[in-house]
Each structure stands twice: as structure tokens, then as C-alpha cells.
């Protein structure tokens, strides 16, 4: 027997007002001949749902409001999954997730490297055709079905592997991302002192090439040696020509901040081949990082929704303070000029457009599953379009504003060292833990500015970390709903496992591993996931129906612009990035260190493991689908929406008028018509639900399979089931 696909009745049964089941919650009594339109709107009450008996597949009890499109805050609309407590809980969480460390330590460097102010042209164009459309697509998907990335694929079940890949990528990324936060905690603790440990070259970890031991001098008094040094009768006093010194001696001077980072903080090994053992101080900082994540997520979105009021707003307070301090420094103008001076001929270089698209794709946190997760806790009629626009503008603003802050300090640093800005410019960890710590040492009260900077890094990263771990948590609980009652225990297990998996990053070779994972796991894997997600909705589900869904949810028709992007511009741009990434591929490097071939192979394996879930799950579903006879028929079956697809709550499902035969209450319907995919019971505890079904059908009979354990008195006849009263326990399969 074919399942209920697209909300249609099986075996050609059309379904009318009289013989369809109209319900409020799981409990409904519809008499023969009663028109469903006569049922007055009221609070939806699921009399069969008893919270004390355990979680069910969906909680259909909800709260009524005078205006059905006005979200009611303070009370959960969806009692089982929960909702954001306040309007700004979600907006700030979304902003914090999208705006992360990359906006501060990646974008300014890319802008400087790719034409300065001219880089904003491809950046904004790519934001319009890739960033905003895919961000909006993913956020609306989660809000419409109130499901996380593991269970939001009922519109085309063959794509469920995309959701699995999202969760895997978020899990892997959160493991190494929290190590970056652990380093920030480490430096924050070091800043709680009167003198920063990287201010001088007189420490036990400093070497003879520490830059303060050979400062840049004019050598007005003394002898200018041919190797670029300046000497007097007592020895070398400094370096008068840095380039000549490097050329003749082949020695590269290292700042005390860089020596501290490499030698003392990381105890970095010569390469990934010599990995070493964990450093106890970094282990403790990593443990602290996971303890903070655990306590902030202990109540799910109810706790994180409050934490983000600090973590999402505080970075902008610090950026503002640093901005006014930075632009008043000597030489800051030079740095800002390097950042914004346009070089328009660079726009003809394909790499500039590729860098802009990649930065947009990753800075907006697209395809990681976090957008689906966060928006799935929204109320159904939340205006997600406004949220998308606010977050997109906030992302652009943070990138540009952060660039002014960072390059004002880089200009000051270049002025103090008597060199050019390009010599001190850096990105990634080099900027956060070497360049900026070095810059603050020459400011008044260095510990104060150091504390501010690392607090900003921590709060910037925490929001993204929360969302990634929440993605794993939500995916697990949506897939196995019985875990919802054990949420605290589940998040504890996740944090403990991820802490143990993160211990290799605390070793001397850990930085090489982190950089490798960032290059591969957080790279082209997201492009494949984002492209698959776009194709699934645009070409399998169909934008015509999706637009109607969004009109029901948001109360107004969607702009044609979204259709243009989702049908063509966005997938084409993502495909361009993906192809160019491989055309422009170079083996992994960290500074001057070139990774061995086996390390690159390990990176490819990690990336492949994340995205192989997409084809493997698709093939598994085709194999497990029995009813259609041919593979092509199975494929059609698996790209057609199931009966369960749609809004989570019955009162919102009742608004779907554009789908003929749409099932109002699929979980009640499953008691009579069992989809062949649901052939094994899960251990999902469900509450008994009373269902009264009245039917005039004289069509083919439907047999109950072992998916429904029923205790019933069923009156059967050759002319139809005249009346059936069933006390039943519904089960719902959590299938792969």
C-alpha cells in the first residue's frame, strides 16, 4: 500500500468534508454530515496528551489569541518543543550565530587583500544573490515545519541525508571552534595582571631572535654594518636596515607576542608529525569552555535566549570603545587607508569574487543547520523576513565596522615598528593571538585593552558555539523524541564527548589539526549541503507550493526576487564557488609549514565523511522503500511530500488550503492508514489518544498493521466501516 503522499488519500480516495477527519488536536468527534467549516475557532486542546506520560511525536495543544497571526509571547505555542520566550531572544540568537569571529579576523584581511573598498562591490552583490536568499530559505524552512535539521525533510524524504550532514558538520565544527574560545579564556586570564607576559623579551621562553633584543634604530650613533645591524664598541645595538638583515643573515625577527603564542601558550611542535601530549593549562581552559556551554544550554533555548542579551550586544559595546581608541592612535589613518582604498582593477580577478562569495556563505553561517534549528523554535507567524534583513545588515555592518577597528590598530602598530601595514596585516588566529596582543602592549594600561579584546572574542564566539551545539542537541531530540524528557542529561553527554574529542587540540601539534579541520570540514562541505538544500526545495518540492506555504505563514505573497534567486542565481553562484575552490586548490599550509600528503588525505576523509551521508541515506531510502516497483518510481515517491509534512500544530495545518486533500491531523490519520515507511515501532513513549472516526466510504478497506497497537471494538461490513471507536496508542518511527 502506497503511503499518504502530498496529503492525498491512497487508492484514489478523494476525501470530502464528510469523510475526512477534522480534528482539534488528536481528539476529534466529527459526525456524519457535519461540515468542518461549522467548527468554531477555539483553543486547540489535545485531551489525549498527558505530559506526565511522556513526550509524543507532536504536541498539538496550543494557546489561542484574538489575532491568529499575532504571536503570543510568554506562553509556548508548541508545548512539546517549546518556543522562544521573547521576540528578541530569537533575533539576538540569530544575529549572534551569523556574526562570529570570521567577521572580525577574516573579512578585514580579505578586503585589504582584494582591492580594499572595491571589495565591497562583489561582497554586497554576493550578499544579495547568495547570502540573503539562502539564509531566508533555510530560516523559513525551520519555522514552517517547526523541525530541526534531522526531521525537516518530510517534503522530500530522500534528502534527509542533507540534514544528517548538517548535524555532522556542526558537531565537528563545534569541537574545534570551542578550542579557539579556550585560547581566548587562556589569554583573558593572562591579562588579569599588571604586566602582560608578552610585553618583554626577558622571559625564559624568549629566544635570541626576539624583536625587542634587536630593535629598529636609525644608527645615527654607531657603525652601520653590512648585514643591516648597527653596532658600537660594546656590541650590536639594533638593526638599521631590516630587509638587508633578512637577506644577509636569513634570520626572521619574531615579536614577543608571537614567541609567547608559539612557544609558551601552544608549545607548538615543528609539524603535525610530532603531535605530543596535552598541555594541562589548555586542557583546563577547554574544560571551562565546555562547562560554560553546558550551563548556558542546560534549559535549551529558554536559557540561551537570555544569555544572548549579553553575548550578542557586548561585542558591539567593546568594538565601539576600541574604535574610538583606535582612530585616535598615531598612524591609524594609514591603516584605515589600506583597508578602504579601492583598487577597481582587482574586480576583474575571479578570485576576488570567489573570496567575496565564500566570505558571505560562511559569515552568514549558511548550511550548518543552525538556522533551521533556531528558527524551528519560532512561533508560526513570526515575521522571519524582517529578521533575515536585520541580521544581513548587521552582518555587513559588523564586517565593515570591525575592519575600521582592526586596521586602525594595525596602522598604529606599523607606525611604531617603522614598517608598512602589509607587513603586520594578518588574519585568523595570527590576528587574534599575535598581532592584536602585540599592539596593546604599546598602549597605556595594556591589560585593560587586552581584557576588553578577549572578552569581545569570547562573546562573539559563544553565540555561534551555542547554535552549533544546539543544532546537535535538537537534531538528536527530534530524531529520538523520548530524549526530550532527558534534555539535561543529553546535553551533558554531548559536552563530555565533545570535550574528550577536543583534547588533541591541546597538544603541541593541535594547532595543525585545528587548521586542517577548518580548511576541510568548514570549507567545501557547506557548499555541497547548501546546494543540495536549494535544489531540494526549488526543484523537488517546488517553489510554487513553497511560496504558498510562506504566504500562509507570513500573511502576504512572496516577491518574485526569491524565485529568481532560488531557481537560478543562488545555486549557480554556489556551484561557481565549489568549482573554483577545486580549480584553485592548493595543499594545506599553516604559515610557512606545508602539510604532508597523509595529513591532507585525512582532511579529505573528514570532509567526505560529513557529506557522504547525503548519497548514502538516499540509496538506503530507495532500498528500504518496497511498494513502488521500479527505482524511478521509488525516486518519485521519495521526492513527494509525506502526509506528515507541514506545520506542526493542527490550527496552523488548518490554514493550508492550497494543497488538495491535505491531511489536517496526520497522526490521527495514521491510526487508519499506515504509511509503508512506518513499519517498525520506535521506543517513543506516547500518550493514549481517543479517536472517533465516522466514515461513509464504500471504497477499499484499510487494514491496521502492527504500527498501531489497538484495543478496539471494530464493526466491519462489506459496505464500509459504519462506525469505529478506537482507543489506540500511536507510534511514530524515527527512521534514517
TrEMBL record:
Na(+) binds at residues 96, 98-99, 103, 363, 460, 463-464. It is found in: Membrane. The keyword Disulfide bond applies. Its main location: membrane. Disulfide bonds join 201-210. One of its GO terms (molecular function) is glycine:sodium symporter activity. Residues 1-24 are annotated as: Disordered. One of its GO terms (cellular component) is plasma membrane. It holds the Pfam family SNF. Belongs to the sodium:neurotransmitter symporter (SNF) (TC 2.A.22) family. This is Transporter. It comes from Potamilus streckersoni.
